[in-house]
Design goal:
The structure is a homotetramer of 364-residue chains. Chain A has helices at 22-30, 55-71, 73-76, 132-149, 169-177, 187-205, 269-278, 317-333; strands at 7-14, 38-45, 80-85, 94-101, 113-120, 157-164, 230-234, 242-249, 256-263, 287-294, 301-302, 305-306, 339-342, 353-360. Chain A is α+β, with helices and mostly antiparallel strands and 364 residues long. The C-D interface holds C 14, 16, 46, 48, 87-94, 266-267, 269, 296, 302-303, 305-309, 312, 314-315, 319-321, 323-332, 334-337 and D 14, 16, 46, 48, 87-94, 266-267, 269, 296, 302-303, 305-309, 312, 314-315, 319-321, 323-332, 334-337.
Chain lengths: 364, 364, 364, 364
């Protein structure tokens, strides 16, 4: 009997524009999606994914309006909204909706089912971004999100998605007016520091790294320090952090399962293929969703061959990396609706990145 | 006895900049490359691959200086130089040198060996670009290049690489001054028409299409007309066409072989994998080189999911497509030194493109 | 006695982001702006001003929410919202609010005062964009807006601002599904055709051109046909046209006046300086607002010297032109809050563009 | 009698491409230019002006070939070649050739005539870029160039143009391999540090700043420290510095004169207009050449209004600034052939920049 256990429903919905929620509306209309169960919505939006990407804010405004109208202001505020800008190459704009069904759907599986939980942290100050203070805020937030999912062992966590803030010229000036100096004056660069500090906060929460081993000065510098399950994404539209934990739990029910892999470089198809096989979907049948990080290696090399991403002043390296790794992953999964997010600082090894795959299993 | 038969040597050489020929110089110094046998040099250079990409001209100037100093002006002029701009994503700038060794190297293989041949066409006028005149010029040039390679059957041709001209504002104005109207006024768009007309010229030469079936108005419009073995690339630095034919011939010797595939869309890894397997290199051992075309589908879709390449006013669709398809192909081959060229108009089906793979076989 | 005559108030308000209306809210709070009198809001937003510029839609959504909350849905729908993307160079994002004060403010001036009027046209079909149908829709809309302003002579009109639609891949596909072919398949190019057809519609309404003289095929081609007072701007967020007419009328009161000039090329500072002097503000005192069009000349030349805007595949020509002409105009006016809009097809001569200047006069 | 005194000839020559020297060739053919007198060639080339701008190297290669063929390798190596990438907006690609005529041309003027001198410094190491070592190298080089021009008082110097190196990924890696850390890992940012350190070196040489007042840590940070006559430009194609000094000297003859101004911000037309008037060319008659620096203010403001240049991840701020300030200056001078160079770190106040104007006076 599964009725006292929660289960997860996941909805992958195409978006025709940053404010196009017609797909979500159709799901609600047909009863396939119950808005009151939505814990998180992840979106790939079609901006540049960098500092002046307003498609994230535009999408967030549309989603917030959608949620408020359906579940009220208070509960809408609890939904984690992580918009990742940048659908370079043939990546396709879409929403990933994570819904918690309270009175369980589906069967029990021996190794449990996909469990999800969320949390929202306090706002940080501009001068905290990219520094120890931010790491600690995120570490604590991940612990909260695990608790919300009912996941007790860090080994059962397969992916942690964090939306974190960035610096703008205005925020730097505001900090300076209070006599505070920010970690960096380059606003594009601030996105990397924020993603990096957030990833290290995740590594601390998951026990992948020891707090004593991480000095603040390591953020954005010592790329040997990294989490294998972190995915962080910076946006202009918030100053706090929104956190989503994906794991496996025997307290949850239903056919969905999650696994993860770590790409060691931008062309590490083997690692992802092994993960797909481990989950029993080598041929893509049962495939539900993929979340991955992509980045340009700082060495300027991929398996010894030079890349030009870091020296390109026309297109930022994050855009190049999303397109390229997106192509590699689409070749493996047979779909372009992939949540590939740029900037993998301290998320997997330099030039590589973590990947999570969600699949639908057949009932036992 | 193989000494009366030619064979092909192929050299894949990294380039640190558009004018970096230090790798070629080292090969000459060690005797691995005999400049007098060079038939063609293909280069991936790190510009934008579009109208104002001067890395192609820069590389061409450096290569021409290199060749003239070693084999004299006259013979240097016969070497086909095809520079394809754009190493988006982690694609790596490099040279592919095709050398014909006159007094045969290596064994005879039952199905023959890689055979290469080149030709150079007359300059066309700006107003001929993208029109029937250009198609016919290219068709005739392909026949010449096949003859040079000693390939008699069109079925033995696996790939035809053509470098073709483009329109600039100045060229359009010059034509107008003579009372002639060019096929298009958008210079970026002219690259597509030139590539398209060249590809249709190849299709005519290879008997893939019938001259009676191709109206001039089909260029850039009727994407059901295409060659399965054409790869064309436009550059500002020439007004004629430089043509390289790759095929198999029992008149040639040595371990190299070429095969081809046609990707039906931007994520058609299966087609390429089948080609690799057919050539006996499923795991990348023996892999020598890959040449491919990439493009954004005009439908705006990849397997039903929307892509944003055609609506992006910041990054041209050709750049997106090279990065994305480049990632997919690098995942399959394990290297980023791939000759992925953008703009596959009439080269494979809409959104897909032809691929050639060159491998080194073990002696029988 | 001026109380039965309307007058215009204009508010130039900085925007910190596409959805930043805090400046407008402050004006309402202090009573400086009465929302019920707003006829039009023009905005310079910080996107790329091209096809995939979602800052316009984001701003429009925020402004619509703002207006609906204050004056109700029905009246909010009548407010003309013209968002022009692109604040290249040092151009500054801002709102220009045009408010009609019913029971007149300020004195009567012998040559009248700034009069404003608006209209909204029917939606057009994708296949009507850039063609005669669109011209006629706009012509008729300008007549309506003049009537709304109480301007009876076309000679009293100094500027007509039109927001017009553009083609997206989806719209082209939709038309094709109905068996209709659009005027162009390049979505960036469709913006130019829509702006051009709209400008010719304005020229027809103002009697600058004769309907018999304009063939549909002239749109985007015969640049000798142009309006001297048209400014048109394309956006993804509408399929109709929103029209604002600026003129002088003795039926209106108050210190504001408008004049116009036509720049003959991108560096025609003299024409604008003459306009400023004619309005009595050579030194910038009394300056209120400037609206201008900028574009790259099709000849590829400015006073005989080559420009590279049309051959640049990294930055679209409209962006270059806004930055450059914006700098020229900012040098003359001493402010970067200028409504400089790109793409001046049929708006002023090739490479030039119309300019309107609004000033505050001292009472006589 | 003027025959024992040198004079300067300046040639402003359009370029149709980075390697187009046909204009120079025509001048040589007609005798208007004597190659043996060329001290320096400045070029505006049409790349992005940032790290991966190969138009500078392409132009440099073409110019070096041109010079070597005419004046021999040894003397060609002494010619200062300063290529500044970026002709944003309507700025026009062109060459500025500075020729020293040994046995004087033209009359003596009471306040002297334009005097020119050049020098080339030693190569610096990657880790010296942006640091005190680079400042000192440039300081010393400016002293040498003044001596070469026969200018004895720093007050007679009106402009110092320096071409300085930048960091690439490969150079940073090379330094790291030697155990040295570079000043910055962001290659685009390294251009700013190199320009800044070079400008401070100029300020030291001209006595504008005191060595005791400049700490290494001020480079790129304390923007209150600046030269009023420095213009520095970074390029990938050298590791040393090439220096050109422009001044006035009674030892020189001829109609040319130079003056300078300092723009306090990006719209400071008044400062440039005052300079033009001071030189007696308020209306552009007699105008020969203008050299200027442009940059985005770090405050994010121009006269209190926000600009978006520093938050734009699609177009680098240097490109925005060149386009915008270029437009302002073209409006004043009536030509788009202006040597406007981006990145004015420590060259004029934050957001502003030095300007030099060269004019042709009528004989007294």
């Amino acid at each position: 009997m599964s009725s006292v256990h929660p289960s997860t429903r996941i909805h992958r919905v195409p978006a025709a524009a940053p404010d196009d929620l017609s797909g979500l509306e159709r799901l609600v209309a047909t009863g396939a999606l119950d808005p009151s169960g939505i814990l998180a919505i992840l979106g790939k939006t079609e901006g540049n994914g960098c500092v002046n990407d307003f498609t994230r804010g535009f999408a967030t405004r549309a989603l917030a309006d959608f949620l408020r109208a359906r579940i009220g202001n208070e509960r809408a505020a609890d939904v984690v909204l992580v918009m990742s800008g940048g659908t370079e190459g043939a990546l396709s704009p879409h929403w990933l909706v994570f819904e918690r069904v309270e009175h369980g759907e589906g069967d029990a599986f021996p190794d449990g089912s996909l469990a999800i939980g969320t949390s929202v942290t306090r706002d940080v100050l501009p001068e905290e971004i990219g520094r120890a203070a931010q790491m600690d805020v995120v570490r604590s937030g991940v612990v909260d999100a695990m608790a919300a999912a009912g996941i007790t062992s860090v080994d059962d966590v397969h992916f942690v998605q964090v939306k974190c803030p960035l610096l703008t010229s205005a925020r730097i000036v505001a900090a300076a007016a209070r006599g505070r100096s920010c970690a960096v004056s380059d606003t594009l660069k601030s996105m990397g520091l924020s993603r990096g500090a957030s990833a290290l906060g995740i590594a601390l929460a998951l026990g992948e790294l020891d707090a004593a081993a991480i000095f603040e000065s390591a953020v954005g510098r010592d790329m040997n320090l990294f989490s294998r399950r972190a995915s962080t994404s910076a946006g202009i539209e918030l100053m706090g952090h929104e956190i989503l934990v994906l794991g496996m739990s025997r307290g949850w029910r239903g056919p969905l399962a999650v696994g993860h892999a770590v790409m060691r470089d931008a062309i590490d198809a083997a690692a992802v293929q092994a993960c797909l096989q481990g989950l029993g979907v080598p041929d893509g049948a049962g495939f539900e969703a993929l979340l991955a990080k992509a980045e340009a290696s700082r060495t300027g090399l991929v398996r010894g061959a030079r890349h030009t991403m870091n020296d390109d002043s026309d297109i930022s390296a994050t855009r190049h990396a999303r397109a390229f790794v997106g192509g590699m992953l689409a070749g493996l999964t047979g779909t372009t609706e992939l949540f590939v997010s740029g900037g993998a600082e301290h998320q997997g090894p330099d030039g590589g990145g973590p990947v999570a795959v969600i699949v639908r299993r057949n009932a036992s």
